[in-house]
Amino acid sequence: MAVSRTPRAFSSFICQSCRQRLLPSASTRAFSTTSIKAADTQSQNNDRALAGLSNLSSNLHRRKGFNNAASTAANPTSYTSILDQDAATPETLLSEQHSRNLDASYTEKPHRLHILATKHNTHITFVQPPRPAIQTASSGISRTSASAADQKKTIDVLLSLSAGNLNFRKAGRGSYDAAYQLAAYVLKQIKEKGMLGDVKKLEVVLRGFGAGREAVTKALLGAEGVDVRKRISAVVDATRLKLGGPRSKKPRRLG
């Protein structure tokens, strides 16, 4: 009687090393650490993103009232009401610290050096933007020793001198030499009293066509105005021109 033999599996004829090569293994990609996503999962994510964008756009249109065409046609002024409904202010767009850049009142105003040059005299006035007296170093008023009335004072004129303050009398006040000495003295006082510490921008305002106009200009361009000249940002001519008006005085004739 023949003995029945159990058929041997095909795998028994394969060695162990070859068997591991034939076994199915997980697919991997070289030089990549990200897992492989199925195509249907990526398409689902794209559909969700598109749905979110469509919902956002519909909410915005509903908020501004664009989906109500009947009310818009009935009320012609609804377009302006829609624009004014969500009017943005600088405070809503930027923080309070940066919104002051959009406001002209927060812009820093420059100091001014006014020069009035007439044929009889020369006046020089150094002016700062209006500030409290306790914030002005040259005022001599401090927070501790000043009274309540002094603390409320505001100072804009820091220095005002003319050729008469330098002991020039009568016709000598309108000379070129008097104006040059006055300009040199004023520039020296501005430096010695520490007024240049707060000056970031300086505007020179010229008025009149006397001898002091050229004298003060030479002083600013010379050695006396080295420290002040660096801060000059603009030179303005504020000479008043007569257009019509009353009849002028008869010119003086000598001889």
From the coordinates shown, what is the CATH architecture of the domain at 105-237? Answer: 2-Layer Sandwich
Q: What is the name of the CATH topology of the domain at 105-237? A: Nucleotidyltransferase, domain 5
**Could you state the CATH homologous superfamily of the domain at 105-237?**
Ribosomal protein S11/S14
Number of strand segments: 5
The radius of gyration is 43 Å
Classify the secondary structure makeup into a structural class: alpha/beta
Determine and state the CATH class of the domain at 105-237: Alpha Beta
Poorly predicted runs of 5 or more residues: 66-74, 76-80
User: Helicity range of the residues?
Assistant: 25-40%
The average pLDDT score comes to: 76
For the record, give the distance between the C-alpha atoms at the N and C termini, rounded to a whole number: 169 Å
H and E order: HHHHHHEEHEHEHHE
- Determine the oligomeric state from the structure: single chain
Describe the strand arrangement of the main beta sheet, using strand numbers.
Answer: 3-2-1-4-5
Total of helices: 10
Keywords: Ribonucleoprotein, Ribosomal protein
Protein name: Translational machinery component
InterPro entries: Ribosomal_uS11 (IPR001971), Ribosomal_uS11_sf (IPR036967)
Pfam family, one: Ribosomal_S11
Gist of the model:
With 255 residues, the protein is of the alpha/beta class.
Notable traits:
10 helices; 255 residues; elongated; 15% strand; single chain; 5-stranded mixed β-sheet; Nucleotidyltransferase, domain 5; alpha/beta
What does the model show?
- The protein is an alpha/beta fold and 255 residues long.
- The chain has a domain at 105-237: Ribosomal protein S11/S14 (Nucleotidyltransferase, domain 5).
- 36% of the residues lie in helices and 15% in strands.
- It is built from ten helices and five strands, in the order ααααααββαβαβααβ.
- The chain has helices at 16-22, 39-64, 69-74, 78-85, 90-93, 96-99, 148-151, 176-192, 211-221, 226-229; strands at 111-117, 122-132, 154-162, 202-207, 232-237.
- It has a five-stranded mixed beta sheet, with helices on one face.
- Residues 66-74 and 76-80 have low confidence and may be disordered.
